[in-house]
Amino acid sequence: MNDPSSLRQKLAWSGFMHGGPVLARIYRGFEPRWRRRLERHQVTSYDDREHGFRGGDLHELTTRVYEKGLRHIWKAEIQAPFLGFHDASALEKAGVGEETQRHETRSLLNTVSASDVRREFDQAFSPEQRQAILDITSLIAHGEAYALYTSATLLPFVSGTGSKMGMAMQVMEEAKHFLVLREMTRLLGGSPPLRDSAYILFERIARAEPYARLFGMNVILESWATSLFAQFAEVPGLRHVFAEFHLDESRHVGFPKNYYESGRIPPEVTHGLRPRMRRERLLFPAIGLIWDYKPAFDTLGIDVFAFFGRFLAKASRLAENSGLPIVAPREKVMALTNLLFNSCVRAFEPERFNGYQDYTQLHDGSIRSDILEIEKEVFGEDVFSARPAQEAA
Fold first, then answer.
1. Coil, helix or strand at residue 257
2. pLDDT tens across 122-134, in order?
3. Nearest to 242 by CA among 379, 66, 367, 65
4. Rounded alpha-carbon distances, angstroms, from residue 254 to 195, 218, 319
5. Is the separation of the CB atoms in 93 and 77 below 8 Å?
6. Domains of the chain
């Protein structure tokens, strides 16, 4: 007599092999219509094809006001050093002098750095690899525009003087990230428009109610940003910016945890079924995003399932620590993620399948050591394994 459990496993495997692609095609047919609907009712006024905002305050901020505002910020360390403040960078202090000299120095540095960075990028990668890097980094380049919009709309919502100051600083840093990454991607070859899955994910987070928006922004998008900045921190052409931006994003990731620990997230938001379901639904478009960007990861030799699995491990831990969990317990999310990714490799890339792999475990040595220490502090030691990455593989 056949073992009933073995029979059920065979039926489930057959259903996955044949039903999975069918469900994927159905979803893919629906996805463009979902995007067009969101575009008709867009809340951000962001145009990912032009890589800019269309009109409104954010257009003004990102075209004229931001750089002008930063230049005019009064620095006590420079203007009144006797007060003991330390609010100026080394470059700002070194730049105190004749305006003509500062202008010429800036122009020279900009010219040299631009040509050097582009040459470094072109020499390090093939045309296919360069395009793959731009495809992946376009996610964060466009994502920073949504981070700017979302953090700006959260500023009136958060309560407490310290929280408002922290969110105000985040708004300014997101503006910096958006403008810098836009120019960097233009320098390196241009930023492709968002795929439908990414556009849907970003737009749904931007239009969510405030607590779900805080979850989508500071838990999901910022965790995603730390993963990307850490992954590409030493990549030629990107290394000049990405490692530094990882520090900014790590502070943003810490905001919801501190906000929760200060008692500012109501218990019904943390434990209520409806708010948890609302947060969980925000994540659904990310499934399509994995397969949209998988070819680019493959071109660079990066395991897309390991990248996304480790991102989910960090984000799910942060969600719990920030009082913003989803419906499914973290352990179940990790188990289902591993089941899905292992099944996909076994079914559709059998040459890569060498037995069950834990795609959700981060390992020492997988990212730069100084960045690793920051991530351990932000996300928790328990999401990292002490085993070196090469042993884990």
1. helix
2. 999 999 999 999 9
3. 367
4. 29, 8, 11
5. yes
6. 18-72+125-392 (1.20.1260.10)
